[in-house]
Amino acid sequence: MNAMRRSSRWLIGSAGIAFTTVFFLVPFAFIFTMAAKDVNEASMLNFSWPAHFQLLENIVAVFQAHDYMLIIAFINSSILTLASVTLLVLLGSMIAFVLDRRKSRLNPLINTLVLAGLIIPPAVVPTIWVMQSVGIFKTMGGLILIEVAFGLSFTVLTMRAFIASIPREIDEAAIVDGAGPLRLFFQVIFPLLRSVVVTIVVVQSISVFNDFQNPLYFLPGDANATVQLTLFNFQSQYNTSYNLLFTNILVITIPMLVMYILFQRQIVAGMTSGAVKG
Amino acid sequence: MIRTHRPVIGLIAGMAVAGVAVSGCSAGSLGSNSGDPTSKGSVTISFLVDNSDSSMKLANAAVDAFNATNQGVVVKIDSRPGGTDGDNLVKTKLATGDMNDLLMYNSGSLMAALDPAKNLVPLTTEPFMGNVEDTFKTTVTSGGQVYGVPFGQAQGGGVLYNKKIFAKLGLSVPKTWSEFMSNNAKIKAAGIDPVIQTYGDTWSSQLFVLADFHNVIAAQPDWADKYTANQAKYADDPAIKGFQRLQQVHDAGYLNKDFASAKNSQGLQMLVKGTGAQYPMLTGVVPAYVAMSDTAAKDIGLFAQPGDDASTYGLTAWSPAGIYVPTTTTGEKLAAAKKFLAWMATPEACDAQSKAVSPSGPYMIKGSKLPDGLPTAVSDMEQFFADGNVSPALEFLSPLKGPNLEKITVEVGSGITSAADGAKRYDEDVKKQAQQLGLDGW
Description:
heterodimer; A: mainly alpha; MetI-like fold; 12 helices; disordered C terminus; B: alpha/beta; D-Maltodextrin-Binding Protein, domain 2; six-stranded mixed β-sheet; five-stranded mixed β-sheet; 20 helices
């Protein structure tokens, strides 16, 4: 009986590992082998070990392409991701806190607006008109605000659900002890949000870092390129350098991969230590 | 009850936003900006080019040669993605008045879709337009005004074939469709895929229909005008033949096995390696396959898509892209842009481009010559131009090109839809576009 249960558990476990291998590692192995091939071999798009292993040459070529555009792109993408995620977490948690704790007649309206942000798709040209009239079109600050605006609804909804689970008694105890509103939020509530903050940071950094459309339309120009835009340097209708394209994919995937692996532990830790009993 | 001071929190949030917005952090240009010959008193203009390898090489060669002529104008290249994203970006930039001083974009129906009367500066009366071939001018004309100067070379659309296979099997270049099909039977009997199709890149599925246009216009010379005026349809003869031919090669089992998922580059590999014999294609791919093997330039030839009548055999040609000036370019920048265009319309500019990228067809500039030692397919194509057996593709004679053609041709070419149904659906697709453009008679 016991042996049977153990063997079935073993079966499920290995099925899980096999599933992960097929759906996550095989595509990654394909990217890796393609990135190490030369142009001709890569254009056959076969899943095979490269005849000439030239990953290093390809990486150098990808970095040198278009006047070291990739390096500029990495700097731009880092600034963009860092600034917009910081703003998102800060603004999102504050909005969520006020929305949850302070009941007012305006709440239904604000909730509708937050939901509308998720439902209504943004239109490009009118947004550019607005940005032009304010004078922030084609600036990094403008693009950061765009990313914050598009990510805020999701952040507020997630944060609000979490804050609702934090007992009010904690707020009241802090107020009785003489904490002002700012102190209450930043020293008492915000540390409790750790696990949801980690979730937001991971989800939003990936979506901002991987964003293609917004940087393309709202921050055009070679000096403003973000990493996703560099992918287009290597593909065209008639002549695509698949080896460089895949090398580029490999290079720009790594930061997100590293971040995910690092934060993976944080998420688990945050889940357990941040849990509060009501 | 909790009381949070709303003004205080609002102030902090406002400060955070303002801080980022004001600092407007942007990374400057890091790389070695080649030379930067900005001398005092010169005007710098920017030129938007799609970032495909060949366009960038052509543009860089032309711009470097132009900047070296020192006319007090410095041109800088800015790149954009290709494909649908690039199209959207160009239209967005034009709509918001944010376009660069010069832009490179397709000619023909795609240029007409940019609303040239509103967005582009007419160049009809400029003296340098005299150097441009009239065939090109018709493809950048809209409402009686000419808007562009050619960028790069014309392309031919026909069938690329492996000459070694043809020599080995004793085949000759087909002049009629029935010769083409009997060649295919012999190639298949020899164990080689007669026709390569690559629907992994859907655009490549349209060639049998689009490159058949010379045969359509040979059968009915005013077909394009009637088509624009809603009097001729793809569902009727002679235009439906393109769809039927696409269906025939599939039904006869002449395609490579992986036609449904193969990519353009894989198709070229098959052709170069000789596992496939013929590939309906545009000559724009010539640089791509020449790089694949040392002998490919010599081994691959081109013939036009054969029709029913050997006496009207000829090639369908694609006009090169154009360089346009948006209406947002004014004053000294406009004058500078025109100087650059005037130089682009000279044979020297063509030579500079030939040095950078091996040409895949003739230039549309009077007096320009192609260098010697070109790949066989390009010289085959030149022969059609020299003989005058060339018709422009439909997209240069009519503003109508339905956006779903490549999806429909994939269906017909894969045997999912019949030629008759496919042609009918394409006519429906075109109808929508004609109504959007507000053409008469729809």
